[in-house]
Design a protein that fits this description.
The protein has helices at 8-13, 73-76, 155-170; strands at residues 4-6, 17-24, 27-32, 36-42, 57-63, 66-72, 92-99, 102-108, 110-116, 122-124, 146-149. The protein has 171 residues and is α+β, with helices and mostly antiparallel strands. The chain has a single domain (4-122, 141-154), classed as Beta Barrel (OB fold (Dihydrolipoamide Acetyltransferase, E2P)), CATH 2.40.50. Strands 4-7-8-6-5 form a five-stranded mixed β-sheet. A hairpin with a 2-residue loop joins β7 (92-99) and β8. The relative contact order is 0.25.
Length: 171
């Protein structure tokens, strides 16, 4: 997943709140906070695997007396599956989201912070013109800062796509 380049105006206009999550040491995504119902911490051993159901579906978990399907969020979002990593942690965070009439759990390695999008973006100064006679700069047009932000991921849309793929496989 690539980072997005935004203008200062685009960043200022986004008043929504986002949760950041790290899929790996160098891959961060933002989740619209209104999609998350609850975040729980569970051990992978608490998930009951379902035979013949493949990644990114991990299995089911009992949540508040309800069966919660748990999906590997890293795999769902294009990173290495949690179970394929060298270190399989003792506990992971699970985002509980609502898709259609069901709750789905999205297991991720690390939950970051809550905030406006600008909190998670990095600002880089534009390259300074050098003294080379071959490069001309326009003194009237100031060089703008580059703003790089983690991508926003719509979990509900990703889960809906996964559900359609699974139904096609099972039928």
């Amino acid at each position: 997943m690539m980072h997005e380049q935004l203008s200062e105006t685009q960043l200022e206009e986004d008043e929504n709140l986002y949760l950041s999550l790290m899929l790996s040491m160098d891959q961060q995504v933002l989740i619209p906070s209104h999609q998350v119902i609850e975040i729980i911490s569970i051990a992978p051993t608490q998930i009951t695997p379902i035979p013949q159901v493949e990644n990114p579906m991990m299995g089911i978990y009992s949540w508040r007396g309800e069966i919660l399907w748990v999906v590997d969020g890293s795999s769902l979002l294009g990173d290495t599956a949690l179970c394929d990593r060298q270190f399989w942690g003792p506990r992971y965070s699970v985002f509980v989201v609502r898709e259609s009439a069901e709750h789905i759990g999205i297991m991720v390695p690390d939950v970051g912070n809550l905030g406006k999008r600008s909190r998670f973006c990095s600002h880089a100064d534009p390259p300074k013109p050098d003294a080379s006679p071959h490069i001309s700069t326009n003194p009237i047009a100031p060089l703008k800062q580059t703003i790089t932000c983690p991508p926003i991921v719509d979990l509900v849309d990703r889960i809906s796509q996964l559900r359609h793929q699974l139904r096609a496989t099972w039928n």
